[in-house]
Amino acid sequence: MRLGVVRESVAGERRVALVPETLARLPEGVDVVVERGAGEQAAFADRAYEEAGAELGDPWPADVIVKVAAPTAEEAARLHDGQVVIGFLQPLTDAEGIERLTQAGVVGLALESIPRISRAQAMDALSSQATVGGYKAALIAADRLPRFLPMLITAAGTIPPAKVLVLGAGVAGLQAIATTRRLGAVVSAFDVRAAAAEQVESLGATFLDLGVRGEETEGGYARELTPEQQAAQQAELQLRIPQFDAVITTAAVPGRPAPKLVTAEAVRGMRPGSVIVDLAAETGGNCELTEPGRETEHNGVTIVGLTNLPSTLPTHASQLLSRNVAALLGLIVSDGALHLDWDDEVVAGACVTRREVTA
Ligand code: NAD
């Protein structure tokens, strides 16, 4: 079986789906062909892939293609019937891309659709990349703030610690809490899921009670709030937000635009020098004033709407992603051949396009 590792073509995507170290973890009988320069932007040289046993060449004819971003139209034109494609295929948000894969007749396994059950934890690429994003959001907040995060006692006097608010305490939010705490900030957090309170507190942060409780799906995700709940949350946050130096927002509902938590009015209430890092920028942002992909300033408040933060830490983001991909390959390859077991809920759940079988 041949496995192709593609060089990403989307601007700003520096990650690679498989790193040299992971080649040794692949199932027996898999020959890997890597596109030249595939790992370059993540600091993995072509030579490292060759030393790990891969061949450099054209990955597109391979039986299985692994990549990070969903194939572009040009890339999809190189796919062939019956091929397996693994990557962040955006099944809930990119209908056109999914249609292209369907037309190409490929089996699309979307990393974001892998069920989040215990058995599939090693394949959970949403979690591994959210960990990177949450960490980076914390560093950006620290960097953009015109003040220290930790308390400092100096001969010139005492500096109080910065106050940070994290909205959305899922995987990314918890990492942002842990990282800003390590840097010495005093951290508060909020999430609509009841289970989040204990996790927030176990990291040494305070759970902010906004009096809003959302519902959870069977998969443990938040459901979208009703318009009334959303208005109540915005009003309550508007009162609390002026106390904070930095707000890191990570709230998301799968397949839906990001919930608006921080209104323009709330931003007007913040002190000059405050910072908002909006990790939900890609799906529209948790702040009304966020401009996806940009960093803006409103009355002295910096709003960071940069997208694809995992790609800004490409070495470790790729390394973790690569282990997720290898774990998934372990499930679909045996004895050097593909075995797609549609009775397996992980394989069936991940599959977002599949060749129509005609009798
Ligand atoms: P996500 O990225 O979809 O959302 C981020 C957070 O935003 C979630 O915690 C969500 O509750 C929160 N949110 C949504 N609307 C909000 C609002 N209006 N206000 C405030 N917060 C809001 O979620 P995620 O980080 O990918 O994970 C979510 C859940 O999945 C968690 O329960 C997590 O523990 C669970 N999970 C399970 C596994 C597993 O069992 N293998 C792995 C990873 C995550």
Mind explaining what this structure looks like?
The protein has 359 residues and is of the alpha/beta class. It has ten helices and 18 strands. A seven-stranded mixed β-sheet has the order 3-2-1-4-5-6-18. Residues 116, 121, 124, 126-127, 130, 167-173, 190-193, 196, 220-222, 225, 233, 250-254, 259, 261 line the site of nicotinamide-adenine-dinucleotide. Nicotinamide-adenine-dinucleotide binds at residues 116, 121, 124, 126-127, 130, 167-173, 190-193, 196, 220-222, 225, 233, 250-254, 259, 261.
Mean pLDDT: 95
Shape summary: globular
User: How many strand units?
Assistant: 18
Please compute the radius of gyration using only Cα atoms.
22 Å
Largest pleated sheet: 7 strands, mixed
Which small compounds were modeled alongside the protein?
nicotinamide-adenine-dinucleotide
Q: Quaternary state, please?
A: single chain
Are there runs of 5+ residues with pLDDT below 50, and where? none
Element order, helices and strands?
EEHEEHEHEHEEEHEHEHEHEEEHEEHE
Distance between the termini: 26 Å
- Secondary-structure-based class equals alpha/beta
Number of helices: 10
Strand order of the largest sheet: 3-2-1-4-5-6-18
- The proportion of residues forming helix, as a percent range, comes to 25-40%
**In percent, how much strand structure appears in the residues?**
15-25%
